[in-house]
Amino acid sequence: MKMIRTIAALAGAAALLAACGGGSDDVGKELGLQNPEIHFVHAIAGGPTVDFLVNGSALQTGITYKTVTHFANINTGATTVAFANAGSTTPLASGNFPDVAKGHEYTVLALPALTGADIGLIDDPFDKGLLSNSARVRAFNATVNAQNVDIYLVPPNTDISTTSPTLAGVSFKNAVPASGQDSNYMNGGTYVAIVTTAGSKTPIFQSASFDLANNADWLITTVPVAGALSQLQPNQIHLLVAQGGNTQQPALELTNALTNQ
Question: Domains, the chain, ranges and CATH?
């Protein structure tokens, strides 16, 4: 009888969430029932086409710059991830998730480095409320030439001198909120993205306005402007917006309205 009541409660929650714009996948994640999911973001401008490896085998192949792969199911437990030149299983960079868990989303990023390539890892426990339709937002810093930044997501024409950063102190090769913590939640609407050196109110980047939809799942990654990495031009950055989903898609690239780059 208890099992029947539990099944009925889950079915009711799924139906209510769907009516509010969510889906049964969100219910499974929130309740820790759905298999863990993982996807890959290629954030190396001018980098090679790569394959995404999980525990030494190719999970997704032929991935080019700005591509965000679809979420794929993986097993629980300790998991090694890497990326390699297309057709190879020799890692260009690798990392490890020590305890992959049900209901979590995992993101692996190919990152630029001063020499070679690097890797970024995010464990998202997905603690979104069953009735919430808010957008989920997180930032990641992949810019060796802007290694500690604040990011503001604000309505157009906002004076940030009196506003706290939306995502503060995003340091190189780290996420905010940090890996292992839930994403930030925001209402859908029209925003601009403004980036400053951490603690400063002077913009080094400002996007044109864009729409953030309810129920969106955004990872905003700072990346060097193509060519800026080798020249080490300070603060020459773009923003890539990786959106989670069941289809492979290019990241949205936000360019700098301050420099027209």
Answer: 35-254 (2.60.40.1120)
